[in-house]
Amino acid sequence: MTLEELKLLVRTVPDFPAPGILFRDITTLIAHGEGFAASVDHLARRAEAAGAESIAGMEARGFIFGAAVAARLGIGFVPVRKPGKLPVPTLGIDYALEYGTDRLEIDPGAISPGERVIIVDDLIATGGTALAAAGLLRQAGASVHLALFVIDLPDLGGAQRLRDAGVTVDALMDFPGH
After folding, report:
1. Chain center to CA of 100
2. How far apart are CA 94 and CA 102, in angstroms?
3. Torsion-angle region of residue 94: left (phi > 0), alpha (psi -120 to 50) or beta?
4. What's CA 15's distance to the chain center, in Å?
5. Measured distance CA(136)–CA(171) in Å, rounded
6. Positions marked active-site
7. Are 72 and 118 in contact (CB under 8 A)?
8. What is the pLDDT of residue 178?
9. CA distance 35 to 6
């Protein structure tokens, strides 16, 4: 499937989670077998071309796409988890949200020093979570130079924040406005 055909599979939900917001819902994309497989194929080709040695994805929707890309490439998947979900001592990073803070954690044993890790997630909006994940993976010794997304919301500035931190951003589609 082409990228334009995939874009048509993303449902837009008006006024969610607040009035004036157009929520881009990937549920309809992942429910479409051919569309989901094509999305994973597009992401996997880009990750492979970048020399990915492993894929990292953030909880929860980054697990869907990231694990599928890793499996397609036959490489490992590093889950970037919410706090308290891993049964071993973790590395963690706190980061700012629009209203408050959050935390991400990883198993530091899941990454080898210098390992080329590509971040994969469903959507980049303000970039806070992806930026925190990149910092956390780097803290663990990973080389993080690329983040792949299904959707970019360019007006929210997240992709530029990642670029400013030395991470190239690539998305299958974008939706101007929010």
Report:
1. 21
2. 6
3. beta
4. 24
5. 21
6. 61, 98
7. no
8. 61
9. 6
